[in-house]
């Protein structure tokens, strides 16, 4: 089944009468259960593509369908439901909530989904154990190393069991060992059926996926 379908997706930003194009005429299909890598130099439009895929930013032109639904026609409420239930984000800069402990950061997506307290606790404990951060559950993000913060960020993205994980340079701030562990987790998630789209400069990370596409100056290279 096709999870993502893009046709003619273009993104520009206006500065007076001038349009600065970031993405140009992108046609892209991603099947359910695929592990796709997006590569290209800085400024190629990779992060913009990821933001459009995650419905954080609308395209200026073109059509985007997710799970057979036209994203352009969705209400704010429907978009919120998709963010809660279907998409998990992993960013290079972690995006953890500084005022919450590790346990509370992991619990937050489940609160949005109105998961019962007993199940929330069980699922958070499972993630703490799976990502080897049990001893950190009462700490705040600024008390963790970069690698620990990224493990929490990945665990938070995974805990709600999304259909799609979008990862923007997920190992960029990590040691090679920590990065390898994160990629191994992604491979396991993908093997269990989760669709993953990652942006990376790393050939090693790209090799963990099943398909790689390249962006250059906003164009998808054929």
Secondary-structure blueprint of this entry?
Elements: E1 2-15, E2 18-31, E3 35-39, H1 46-53, E4 61-66, E5 69-70, H2 76-85, E6 87-91, H3 102-112, H4 117-130, H5 146-159, E7 164-168, H6 176-191, E8 195-199, H7 203-206, E9 211-216, E10 219-220
Parallel strand pairs: 3-8, 3-9, 6-7, 7-8
Antiparallel strand pairs: 1-2, 1-4, 4-5, 9-10
Helix pairs in contact: 3-4, 3-5, 4-5, 5-6
Description:
The chain has about 220 residues and is of the alpha/beta class. The chain has a domain at about 95-160. The chain has helices spanning about 45-55, 75-85, 100-110, 115-130, 145-160, 175-190, 205, and strands at about 1-15, 20-30, 35-40, 60-65, 70, 85-90, 165-170, 195-200, 210-215, 220. A hairpin with a 2-residue loop joins strand 4 (about 60-65) and strand 5 (about 70). Helix 3 crosses helix 4, helix 4 crosses helix 5 and helix 5 (about 145-160) packs parallel to helix 6 (about 175-190). The model has no long low-confidence stretch (mean pLDDT about 95).
The percentage of residues in β strands lies in: 25-35%
Q: Count of helical segments?
A: 7
Structural class: alpha/beta
Instruction: Output the helix-strand order.
Output: EEEHEEHEHHHEHEHEE
Low-confidence stretches: none
Q: Order of strands in the sheet with the most strands? A: 6-7-8-3-9-10
Beta strands, count: 10
Mind summarizing the main beta sheet?
6 strands, mixed
Rounded average pLDDT: 93
State the shape.
globular
Rg from Cα: 18 Å
> Helicity level, as a percent range?
25-40%
Separation of termini?
A: 23 Å
């Amino acid at each position: 089944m096709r999870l993502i379908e893009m046709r003619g997706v273009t993104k520009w930003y206006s500065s007076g009468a001038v349009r600065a194009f970031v993405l140009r005429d992108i046609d892209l299909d991603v099947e359910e259960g695929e592990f796709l890598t997006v590569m290209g130099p800085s400024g190629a439009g990779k992060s913009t593509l990821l933001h459009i895929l995650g419905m954080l930013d609308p395209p200026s032109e073109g059509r985007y369908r997710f799970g057979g639904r036209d994203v352009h026609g969705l209400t704010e409420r429907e978009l919120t439901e998709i963010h809660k239930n279907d998409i998990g984000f992993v960013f290079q800069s972690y995006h953890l909530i500084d005022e919450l402990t590790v346990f509370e950061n992991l619990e937050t997506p489940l609160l949005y989904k109105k998961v019962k307290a007993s199940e929330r606790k069980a699922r958070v404990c499972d993630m703490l154990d799976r990502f080897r951060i049990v001893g950190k559950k009462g700490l705040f993000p600024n008390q963790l190393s970069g690698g620990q913060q990224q493990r929490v960020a990945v665990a938070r993205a995974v805990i709600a069991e999304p259909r799609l994980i979008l990862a923007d340079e997920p190992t960029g701030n990590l040691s090679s060992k920590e990065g390898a562990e994160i990629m191994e987790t992604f491979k396991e998630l993908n093997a269990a059926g989760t669709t993953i789209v990652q942006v990376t400069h790393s050939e090693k990370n790209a090799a963990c996926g099943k398909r790689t596409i390249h962006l250059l100056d906003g164009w998808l290279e054929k």
